[in-house]
Design goal:
Length: about 675
């Protein structure tokens, strides 16, 4: 059976418990951990700096037995690696032309594929080690062309050739290692802390993954600073970053080594070990190299120029490229070693901060628009549903910031054929409690007259029946805005626009779409957060209900446009998610399609991991869907996303609050007549 990798590569950061200067013991422990990684179908495993000898050997590095012992240890690892489709990166002292270098030795299937020396040597280590900059030309632009036999020859890379562990290979800081369709590069320890780390250049030359062999000693708060640096650097370079640092067994004579190991991806930590262990550890995570490559293609920072201003195409010649073969055959279907966030727009982490920030962005955007056009009022349609509630809350907060009275907010509830008492009461109570100007205008008489005018049977509950109601409501709001010198604040959200679940020139249109960047799952979270943190005052409606109580009831109300008559019990008959699909799933699809650029088959794979395995989940927020339901609604999403672009092409202004936006003026430039066939065929 052919295993599909979905763009993932399984990686590991290994921290062996070492014995100082006992290279035989350390080589055996490295092989044991590498074997454990191989059993887990890891393709790339990284060990700490100088892990074969121990980092804290001091003047022993000047002794030939230690250096020779490290080379013998490499030979044992080479023998262990034979027949295994796994790449092992090990730290060792490597002699070259009467100098000693702190190096990463890259091993694959019994071969040394390359040796990468450390570039930035701490002053304490310069006593023993030379810098890898020895292998780089002082002026790459002047020395890149050499004359040989009267002909011009361009040298590929600046490197030395070395015989080590009975094998010949290149030694250079600038080596890119190809692993199937992926590329990784190496830096060591202090290289990361440099103003321009070598990994920045490696990333510009195509390395999606950076590995760092380190021996970072611990001091108070060092771990927080280090994690911040790793997160920011992996985000800045849009790369996967594997960090393995020396741990237990290193000398505690003057310093403490905690054995930190972590794996990062574009600013997000995928996995981390527990520091201060007395036993060896293996930290495993699946890096999405395909996602990283897609993000880079869309990023202006990976185009045209290298950091020193040279043309990227010429800088390319400074690198040696080594092919390692294909990655390990990893069964990602059986097990995926990374967390798949089911709610990418509303992750549980920092939810309070996110909600506060998003509301602040919505508010300041609306303040700017209101003040710019010198509005006397803001006009909103209030249904008692989530979207209009959020828009009203944002408008009230904007008026507070401007110092305007809430009675300048004209809130209009427009009951129709399907309006239920629950939503109508919530709409009225919320308007009263917030102290806005309340109006009620039934759309039933106007719609009935309209049906007569166009010759439509009102018993026929089709698209005409439904959409005429939405357009009538929009007309009312626009005309009231004209009457009052106001601005119609739109209520539609990002999820509805992605699916086209809006009536063209009906609720699709407004003068400022304050919810345009907010997907439905986030709308619900924002309203709930506001209920619990912002609008919990003693203000109450005539019913006696306070703002908090009203908002929480709105959160619990089924999502519905209420365009069809209620059932015999007066309950909502038209539940949106029964028709178009669960917004929980659609928001997952939207994020991974637009933000990560995933193909539909990969989205399906990840959705199954996120929603189909309750035994693997402790989060009670997550609903469970079977694979058939996910496939059904994913097909619906792809079809509707392509067919409804014409609505998005003329959507009104509105603030972008996250990494995903649908504005045709900036975030999503898509032809309205594009075909979905290619994407549907992925399923």
């Amino acid at each position: 059976m052919i295993m599909k990798n979905y763009g993932f590569i399984r990686t590991a950061a290994a921290v062996p418990a070492v014995r100082i200067a006992d290279t035989e013991y350390n080589a055996a422990e490295i092989c044991r951990l590498a074997g454990e990684a191989f059993d887990k179908e890891v393709s790339l495993v990284v060990f700490p700096e100088l892990s074969l000898t121990g980092y804290s050997c001091g003047d022993l590095f000047a002794m030939n037995p230690l250096v020779k012992g490290a080379e013998d240890g490499i030979k044992k690892i080479l023998e262990f690696s034979r027949g295994k489709a796994m790449t092992i990166v090990v730290g060792a002292p490597v002699p070259y032309r009467s100098r000693l270098y702190d190096c990463a030795v890259v091993i694959r299937n019994g071969n040394v594929k390359g040796i990468v020396p450390k570039t930035y040597i701490p002053s304490s280590d310069s006593r023993w080690f030379a810098s890898g900059s020895d292998f780089l030309s002082p002026d790459v632009r002047n020395d890149s062309v050499l004359l040989s036999n009267g002909k011009d020859h361009v040298r590929e890379g600046y490197c030395g050739e070395i015989r080590y562990a009975s094998q010949r290979c290149n030694i250079s800081p600038n080596i890119l290692f190809g692993l199937g369709g992926y590329t990784f590069a190496v830096e060591l320890g202090n290289d990361l802390w440099a103003p321009v780390p070598p990994s920045s250049l490696h990333a510009l030359q195509g390395a999606q993954i950076i590995v760092n062999l380190s021996a970072d000693n611990e001091i108070l708060m060092r771990d927080r600073y280090r994690n911040g640096l790793l997160g920011q650097h992996s985000a800045k370079t849009i790369c996967g970053y594997i960090y393995a640092s020396a741990g237990y067994g290193e000398s505690s004579q003057d310093l403490v080594y905690a054995g930190a190991a972590s794996i990062w991806e574009n600013g997000e930590q995928l996995a981390e070990n527990d520091r201060f262990q007395i036993e060896s550890s293996l930290t495993v995570a699946d890096i999405d190299a395909e996602k990283l490559e897609g993000l880079r293609r869309r990023s202006c920072t990976f185009r045209n120029l290298s950091p020193d201003g040279t043309d990227a195409s010429s800088y390319y010649r400074l690198y040696n490229r080594v092919s390692l073969g294909d990655p390990c055959e990893t069964d990602f279907e059986k097990m995926l070693c990374r967390y798949v966030e089911p709610h990418p727009f509303v992750p549980e982490e920092d939810l309070d901060y996110r909600c506060r920030e998003i509301l602040s962005m919505q508010v300041i955007a609306l303040v700017r628009r209101l003040s710019h056009i010198n509005c006397r009022t803001a006009v909103l349609g209030i249904s008692g549903g989530l979207d209009s509630t959020l828009a009203l809350l944002v408008t009230a907060m904007a008026f507070d910031k401007l110092g305007w009275s809430h009675d300048r907010i004209v809130a209009v509830t427009m009951p129709g054929f399907g309006t239920t008492s629950r939503t109508k009461n919530n709409a009225w109570d919320l308007m009263e409690a917030l102290g806005v100007t309340c109006r009620e205008i039934s759309i039933v008489p106007a719609c009935e007259q309209h049906f007569k005018d166009i010759g439509h049977d009102p018993a026929k509950h089709d698209a005409t029946y439904e959409n005429s109601q939405a357009r009538e409501r929009t007309q009312i709001l626009m005309d009231i805005a004209n009457q009052t010198g106001g601005l119609v604040v739109g209520t539609g959200d990002l999820s509805e626009m992605a699916l086209g679940w809006a009536t063209y020139n009906g609720d699709h249109m407004s003068m400022y779409a304050v919810n345009a960047g907010i997907p439905k799952t986030l709308v619900r979270s924002l309203v709930k957060w506001a209920a619990e943190n912002r609008f919990d005052s003693d203000d109450a409606a005539s019913s006696g209900r306070g703002v908090k109580e009203i908002l929480l009831d709105i959160v619990d109300t089924p999502i519905s446009p209420e365009l069809l008559p209620a059932n015999d019990k007066g309950e909502i008959q038209q539940v949106t998610e029964d028709l178009v699909g669960p917004y929980e799933l659609h928001d997952f699809f939207i994020y991974n399609f637009m933000r990560n650029g995933y193909s539909p088959d990969k989205i399906y794979f990840l959705a199954c991991k996120a929603f189909c395995h309750p035994e693997e989940r402790s989060d009670v927020r997550i609903s469970i869907y079977d694979d058939e339901a996910i496939m059904k609604w994913l097909k619906t999403f792809v079809r509707r996303f392509f067919s409804q672009q014409f609505k998005r092409s003329c959507m009104p202004d509105g603030p972008k609050v996250g990494s995903v936006g649908l504005s045709p003026r900036g975030d999503w430039d898509m032809p309205s007549d594009g075909w979905s066939t290619l994407f549907q065929d992925c399923l």
